[in-house]
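writing this on my phone so excuse typos. first protein, seq and then structure
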Amino acid sequence: MGIIIRQSMKGTLVTYIGAFIGFLTTFFIVTQYLDPEIFGLSQALRAAALMLSALALLGTNVSMVRFFPHFKTEDGKNNGFFFYVLIIPFIGFVLATAAILLFKEPILSYFSQNSALLVDYFYWLIPLTFFFLYWTVFETYSSVLYRIAVPSFIREVVFRVFLIAVYLLYAFHVTDLTGFVLSFTLVYAIAMGCTFFYVSRISPLSVSGNRSIVSRSLKKEFFTFSGVLILGSIGATAINSIDIFMISGELGLADAGIYSIAFFMIAIVEIPSRSITSISTPIASCAMKAGSMEEVGRLYKKVSLHQLLIGGIIFILIWINVDNIYKIIPNGSVYADGKWVIFFLGIARLIQVTLGFGNNLISYSKYFRWTLYFTLFIAALTVFTNSLLIPRFGIAGAAIAVLISCFISYGLQQWVVQIKLKLNPFSIGTLKTIGIVLLLLGINFLLPQLNNPFIDLIFRSVVIGILSILLIYFSHLSEEVDWIFKNFLQKIKKTK
């Protein structure tokens, strides 16, 4: 767990720096200078590119992790593995582009009434998808090399800083709407290029595939595995993106913009899981390949516990201050309709960070086909619940639909992990963490409400923050948590 702790802490630190930048961007630039409709347009384009890139990956983002151990060499050239990393997604990109052009008319028809701007900028999806696709590819390749800190810096800091420039250029009329979409797309190109440059610096990038290592059995395993993952990845991405699409189609881009603000606010909950999962996944893959299921089981419990703990504390700090936040941000009354979106999405994210690593374990086991079965089922359920709840409850209905889908999908996933792999993420630490979260929420109700939203936010955050640290310290949730406290206290003693 040493490399996991080091890389995860570096990645998480960078991520929270980026989150702070994102917080300032979203709540003090976007809400001040961009109409909800314009912001909704950018997020709808992003969601569309995300779904198309999931198709174009052809399962590469997962199969890369699973099959890298077969190619890994001491000289770092890895038998030309990078060649396959490049060529397979390109084939997928061609197929994805053909798909959106083939189904252009029904897509444009769905969005034409409530989201005309999305129709106007439809073709921008093609370059945006390409940049999004290879950014993901290069990030994943870096993670299999156990190097996630710099790619995290590019995603969370460099990318966000350039986004600020994009928003401000449009806000001060330096660019028109077309220039806004163009510069928004170019930011993804810059992020992709930076990540590629970093990967080229940490590992020799051989583009000559070593065919001798690709045996017939390995090739068959790869195509079978990737074939299942293609549909599974599309379904999983649809679960995460269909809400923005259906809000845009059913309600309009302005509502999509309000929903997106709430979405970004609660997305902070899952930030730590990105670093932890990125560095833990290759280790789990190698352990499963070696047949060390006890090590996989211990890793699953630790990843789940720490993600629930950190995510739970963050969710509490957001929810207890949600009214203050909407009072503080510019045009907060416009975006306050997203309050209950934050609550329902927050619960959904806690389920996701607690059980999400189980999906990786299934993907790298012989039962990987199960990921396809319940992912497609949940994708269909997500469309159904959104179509049922959005007309009735608006954007809150979309958040409820996400929660329902997460509860059922991760419940089914854990059932498969338990039955097939005999693994579960729960421990005494899990119960203690849930107890801490509920206790802190209860204590918040006892705190007095102060009139000034700034002072009330600081007051609640400090009180709940200090209590959470004390409760975690005295609960002894895990060896890793105790280790962090022990080292922190030793450094304090040395400074005295």
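second protein below, same order as before
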Amino acid sequence: MRHSRALVVAVLSAVLLLSACSSGGGDSDSGGGNAAADGEAAAPAEDAAGGRNALEANEAALTSDPDAGEPPAMERAIISTGDVQLESDDVEKAVFDVQALVDRYGGEITDRETNTDDEGDVRMARLVLRIPATKFSDAFGDLEEVADLKSSSSTSEDVTTKVIDNTVRIRAQRRSLRRIEILLDQAVSIRDIVAIESQLTRRQADLDSLEQQQAFLRDQTSMSTVTVNIQLTPDEPAKKNEKDDHAAGFLSGLENGTKALVFFAVGLATVIGALLPWALVLLVVGGPLWLLIRRLRRRDAVPAPAPAGDVDGG
């Protein structure tokens, strides 16, 4: 009997031990499933596209599961910008060539400005281009060959650290929001609810700001900006003037002759105007004096009558 009782006790103990192990394994499996679900919920929505640019690759590396193996390598995030100054005899054709080049590289023209002369010909054009960052170097070199190159410059800024810092802060902010939401669900008093909602609102605003920075970095690192200025070649107006040399010479001579005539007329009028007052004075004073002198001369010219005795003797 004692042996039978000992056997029964041993069997019951083994059953209880197996049940405890099974329940512990089930709990651990359940916990693992919940952790995986939480990890999937924490992953950024934009990471679903995956691999579109360096920013998304870095986000994938930072949000990857450490137990799944070695995370993907971090890629450098570069913001590239360029400026190209060109000259062309035909600005409109150069603009068309730039548009064709942008289409070939899968970019776009986001801003366009042109200036025309009185005849409607395009004399200057300014274009702002967005080129895929991976094709920036090739596209920039081709843009320099569209027309006569005056100057060009380009800059590249490594923002990988900013991208990593921004991504980490977004992850931390989202986890904080989830914890606060759990506390809000468990809150009972009005005071606790108000305090928790205040924290929730503030941290949501911080998260929105971080996500806007992330969107800006994604845009700048995925598409490079190039500004292209095209001007008409300065020699073009000079060639047009050479064709009109003969007409210009005749008109120039006519203009100079007219100016000389006007100058002579102005000088003559000035002299006449200066002498006119003196002429009036001479006319007023000299006129009567001249008449008096003339009368005196006529009187002296009349012969005196002969004496009467001389006439009779004769």
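The chain has a mean pLDDT of 74. thats all i got for now
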